[in-house]
Amino acid sequence: MKVGLVGFPGSGKTTVFGALTGQQAELGYSGKGPGKTNLAVVKVPTDRNQAIGEPLKPRPPHTQVVFVDVAAPPGVAGRSFDASAMSAMRDMDALIQVVRGFPSPDGAAADPIGELTDLATEMTVGDLAILDKRLDRLQKEAARPGETELLARLKAHLDRGEMLRDVLLTDAQMQLLAGQHLLTQKRLIIAYNIAEKAEGQPLPAELRKYLASHSLPLIPLCGLGGTDGATLSTSEQKALFSALGLG
Fold first, then answer.
1. In this structure, what DSSP letter does residue 182 have?
2. Separation of alpha carbons 9 and 172, rounded Å
């Protein structure tokens, strides 16, 4: 499974990538070239895997998750992604949007709702372009009425500002869409990146309301603190998390 981390500049996306993977990745951008895409393969041990593996030699392999720190190009104005970043997102099975929950270095307050809505808009516009192009081709071919009807339905859904992940589809319909790689159809998890001193504090009411209305799961975390822990050995991690009262 490939999971892409996405986020706007200053969100701490690459720091969270390091916390998840234990990999020390370069922060920000260097030189005049595009940002670097970081990638890490993480094994996911489970009790089930352990139980099955005990009598077997060799043990069955762990489930693996590939985390990709999707790079946005340097110098992009505002909250937007270029074609290469959007293409990289389409290659993912799921997305994690890292949202800044702490003041920026210049003192700007966190704007989680703005970041969430801006990415949703970016993905919606990208999906509409794909659907329009495909519908235009289907009309010229005068074929596949089932696909035409489905895509027109999905386009209307996007026009209303709704995400395609909320649309119930049959297996056959999912097969029709398999080659489109629609972004708003992918599962999305929000990683709310907060400062260490804010851990344990309730989420802003406006953010809770947004998440509930869009059925989005959120994980509050401190990317910087998680990175510190991820670079320790297993025994050191256990000692650190125990001291912090964390599981």
1. -
2. 39
Residues near 108 by Cβ (< 8 Å), separated by ≥ 6? Answer: none
pLDDT in tens, 195-205: 888 878 889 99
Query: Side chain identity at 100, as an amino acid letter?
Result: R
- Is the predicted pLDDT of residue 240 greater than 80, yes or no? no
Phi, psi of 164 (to 5 degrees): -75, -15
Global pTM value: 0.81
| Inter-CA distances, 107 with 10, 88, 102, 103, 104, Å | 12, 31, 9, 5, 5
Tokens standing for residue 232: 């320790």
| Amino acid, single-letter form, for residue 185 | Q
Rounded Cα gap, residues 239 and 235, in angstroms: 6
Closest CA to 43 of 53, 35, 34: 53
The Cα-based distances of 226 to 28, 115, 178 in angstroms read: 18, 22, 35
Q: Decide if 40 contacts 23 (C-beta within 8 A).
A: yes
Cα 164–Cα 169–Cα 171 angle in degrees, nearest 5? 130
pLDDT band at 25 (very low <50, low <70, confident <90, very high): low
- Side chain identity, residue 216: L
